[in-house]
Specification:
The protein has about 80 residues and is an alpha+beta fold. It is built from two helices and five strands, in the order βββααββ. It has one domain.
Length: about 80
């Protein structure tokens, strides 16, 4: 199921010395998301074809948390520095 946000999406970004947290809040439904960063082998294999190893490696959150209360959804992405 694809995410379907109805109305605005609120974006909050926070950081400390070790992590950056990005939180998206919206009304709608939750998308199907991977639970964690794909394995390095998979990223290297996929990016070998496109030549984007460094770029793809940096796009995946270290941890993803999803929650929904009715139609109020929240997705939290944690990036470790």
């Amino acid at each position: 199921m694809a995410a379907n946000a109805r109305g605005p999406v609120q974006l909050r970004i926070g950081s400390d010395s070790f992590d950056i947290t990005v939180t998206l809040s919206y009304t709608g439904n939750l998308p199907n998301l991977p639970d964690a960063r794909p394995g390095l082998d998979l990223v290297e294999e996929q990016s070998f074809v496109s030549g984007l190893t460094g770029y793809l490696s940096g796009l995946h959150a270290d941890r993803i948390e999803r929650s929904a209360k009715g139609e109020e959804c929240e997705i939290k992405l944690l990036f470790r520095l």
